[in-house]
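In this section we walk through a basic example: taking a raw amino acid sequence and producing a predicted 3D structure, encoded as discrete structure tokens. The instruction is simple. Fold the sequence below.
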Amino acid sequence: MRRLFKMKYIIAVASLSSCLLGSCGLMDTTSEEHLSGDEMWDEASVQSVEGFVNSIYTEFRAATMQKSCYILYSGDLRCAPLETDGNLDYVKDLVSNDLNGLREHYPNDDNERAEAIMQWKNFYKVIQSANILLKEIDRTSVPENEKKAYKAEAVFMRGLAYFFLVRNFGDVPYYTDAYHQEPLPRTNMVTVLKNIAADLNQILVDDPDVTCLPWTQYSSDKKAIRASRGAVLALLMHVNMWLAGFDESQKNTYYEAVVDYGEQLVEKSGNAYTLLPLSQTATLFRGGSNEGIFEIVQNLSYINGNEVFNQNAIYSNEVMYSVFDLRSQPYVQYTYDFLTRIYPPSEPDERVTYWFNENIYSTMGTDPKEVKKFEHVDLYDGKSVTSNSGNQIVFRLADAILLYAEALAELGTDDGKACGLLNRIRARAGASTLSLSGSELKDAIYWERVRELMGEGHYFYDLVRTGKVYNNQYCYHPMTKSEFREGSWTWPISRKAQENNTLITLNNYWE
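The resulting token sequence is shown next.
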């Protein structure tokens, strides 16, 4: 039954997805597709619906780590303080924020480079599938409590997909109805973010006793890779921080919401999440640990064989060399100035020991340095080496603690508590305790996010949402305020999006 259900689903969704924002408007269906959909849901059991839900996560994985280098390129390399002595055009383009140059250098590399990231269709497959589940699941024989849990997962994944879209493209087409057929223009990004927040908050309201989505998924095959109450709260924190950055007139309201969600996640979730000692770095970044809140699983052996990430999408494959036979240095290295700024040699910090090789303070052309934070070597197909076969971290507890601290510092109502949260992260690293307030505290929290979350896809996005991306005191490759207002922080939208949807406008800064 599960295999039959999944095959029908793939056929129907593949037909719909081929039309997404393209030749058929936003979406198009035929009577045959509707009929097969009816058959699927009328026959659906818990096992069948579970397979459908797994497919939503698989589609999100394809959009971020398999079809493109989405997280690496957009979150870690863009405007970053990196250097390379090779002919790596993609690094030079991303570091200098020359996305048209990236598009010119890799015009036809749909699987790995610019064009794949500029196409938003893979995220709309996630959204489409979530909308279909929300519409159809009430027709199944699934018990009511399980229906509620699956609906919550669908809302979470739809919100996560929209959040990733907004962070890259700004305004995006927005819809929540299944089988949508009419072309849509782009919706203002603040409106989209508010809608995400409202949907996610409703999950919390509808599940006050945490009987629907648990604080964390405890079974080994779901832990951190399926939605949980913790994941909902973490996403709400990020969404509200972006709203604070782009809807400044209401920013305190958003900061207050982040404090509320942070209090729930960090202080009221019991033992669901804990900070792991740095000595357990390998456990943390392999995935599924007690610090992980939401991750993208790399090995889907329980669904679809030993399927792994696009090797060019893995951060550690860019910043490591020692595990590869034919490399004498990594593809990219962080600059000496940057590393000595965030990890001053005179100050204790165990992250230097656990996350880097001994050459962390070398300069380009001398002993090569590498970020070993995510090192988890494996060999695929007996020949293809990867430096990290673990999961891709999306949200973890340290990230949530620092967002919580940031929101408190921005409100200025309890700098002592904000500083205490900051020091929780520093204490785990064996770094000195700080006693700060005001702007100094805000700066310390920002730089703590930079050092703690390096390689986890937050660097560029934190610069954007805080407005620091046009300040050379924080951004090593800043854009001007006028460029920022014109959309230089966004990605170009693939021109294919306009082929048969005249309502779609492109990001004009890149045209």
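Looking at the output, two observations stand out. The beta strands are 82-83, 292-296, 333-334, 378-380, 384-386, 392-396. The mean pLDDT is 89. In the next section we compare this with other chains.
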